[in-house]
Amino acid sequence: MMNDIGDTDGAREAQVEVKDLVKHFAQRGGFLGRNPRVVRAVDGVSLKIAHKRTLGLVGESGCGKTTIGRCILRLIEPTSGEVHFEGVDVLGLSGRQLRRMRRDMQMVFQNPYSSLDPRMSVLSIVGEPIQTHLSLSHSEMRDRVVELLEQVGMSGDHIYRYPHEFSGGQLQRIAVARALALNPKFLVLDEPTAALDVSVQAQVIAKLVELQQDLNLTYLFISHNLTLVHYVSDTIAVTYLGRIIEHASSEAIFDNPIHPYTQALLSATPSLDRELRQQRVILTGGVPDPVNPPPGCVFHPRCSRAKDACRQEEPRLVNAGDGHMVACHL
Amino acid sequence: MNEPLVIIRDLRLQFRTYAGIVHALNGIDLEIYEQDVLGLVGETGCGKSMTGLCILGLVPRGGEIVSGSIGFRGEDLLTKPESYMQQVRGAKIAMVFQDPSTSLNPLFTIGQQIETVMKRHQQADKTQMHERALELLKVVELPDPARIMDTYPHELSGGMKQRASIAIALSCGADLLIADEPTTDLDVTVQAQILDLLRRLREAQGVAILMITHDLAVVAETCQRVAVLYAGQVVESGPVDEVLYEAKHPYTRALLEASPKRSSRGKTLQAIPGTVPSGLRPLEGCAFSPRCPRAMEVCAQPPPRVAVTPAHAVYCYLYADSEE
Predict the structure, then answer these.
(1) How far apart are the C-alpha atoms of B180 and B165, rounded to whole Å?
(2) What is the mean pLDDT of residues A319-329?
(3) A224 in contact with B at a CB cutoff of 8 Å?
(4) B274 DSSP 8-state letter
(5) Right CATH number for A7-51+59-96+220-326 from 3.30.750.24, 3.40.50.300, 2.40.30.30, 3.40.1390.20?
């Protein structure tokens, strides 16, 4: 059922496969924590990403995008579910095996001002993964760091500088260089340009697209910016309250969105394309509390076309033709 | 749209720092018309927010306005004493800040915060103020205004807090609302709600809005006129449709090329080479010329203002000849 997502990828072997991923966070509540609550951050997410492809994960804040990304890399332990990378069960790995696996899977975080240690030089920031995983001499490591910096379009002379000497765009490129240090196959990019200006964003995105071509990388691109996700991704998964509600090729999501939430999200996105400035669907209210999600379809309280079935039964992700997956009763 | 509500001429702002004098604004020229929405766009550090703060007379410590004038209804605000500005702020010109969770006071209820502003500027008794506050919460479309009056900011979501701060800004019937990135911290679906609200408020309340934003798409959706800022100077201004779809200045064009659009899929986003000039050096000539693909020798001189159409102005030598 799931293997024909994004049609063109049907024949390709999935490099990253996520099945029924669940992450619940326990939150203390009540007097002296006697009334613990469970935040259902990710509630049954399944994904596939083919080799050399980009999957865009979009959704509003609090919908579990970042948690999904971190669970795949096991930066946080998922509550249940399965993650396979090139056929290997990532969640079943021991500590040592996992560390070996991390060479192939790396992450770029949202805010380079906080993801790079201000007290480390660029050489030690980018060199740290090399030191941890490979036994190279100091001069070999330095040569590799210079090579990596040049790969992301920066001068190799910068290795003895510190993060405060760089602009946001440069810092994010240093973070990309660090992620590339061990020749990974798969990168999780968590809002890599959210902290940057548009002209700088364009530099970083262009560099990421170029690196994907040159180094045969697979990307999971997490963002709240639909236009940007559409620009970089082959397939898009739309998340809402810890679930995937629509998953299809980038063109299909934009040209033929099926789920009312996707339609509302697209229409709410301000656009520079003049012909797209039409009358918009404006949703009322905000995203519900993930501690106690509404019964049935999680979107029904904000959906203008909700019917009885939507209030009672949670829709499953089904194929609406050509691998366009959607979770909606309509 | 006859006489402008606000006329800013040659506004220059400098900051004294240990590293030297930072030239934050280098001669801003702007007009805001009655019931107009003017978008002020540009990248980080180009002086958007500082322009807004100068209008309100809220220049941060260390900053000094070295020249220029800000005409508001015929009066130059820069020559007025602080006591006069206190009468203007909140009553005639109000501000909506980027992050409502820090601009609202966490210790007072929404109702108290609206009434505080009214108490300062209007003579009214308690029941009148209470009724007016309830009405304002209805105007900004908050559900159940009577309950919202008694809630504290932490009980509201981001979108609701931003609605409440818009209610405070409108409480004394301001003529001009300065909205500094009012939707940057909000999700897209909530952003659409707030932008839609601002649009309708302009029509219903007849308030002019200065919309400060870095997002060209937000400008395209909400503003009638736009001014593009670069390094503390206006490089292009005019009606939104002309500036965004018939952009003249190389910087405006580059900014548009760098923004992802639905139609740009498959094409490369054009990054702008180089970086924004440091504010530490005084500007000589066109600030964009070091990064401009079409820079000429004359660009070392201050660029002329060229009227493309009566309403559309561009500050660039490329169009200087076509004027005469």
Answers:
(1) 12
(2) 87
(3) yes
(4) S
(5) 3.40.50.300
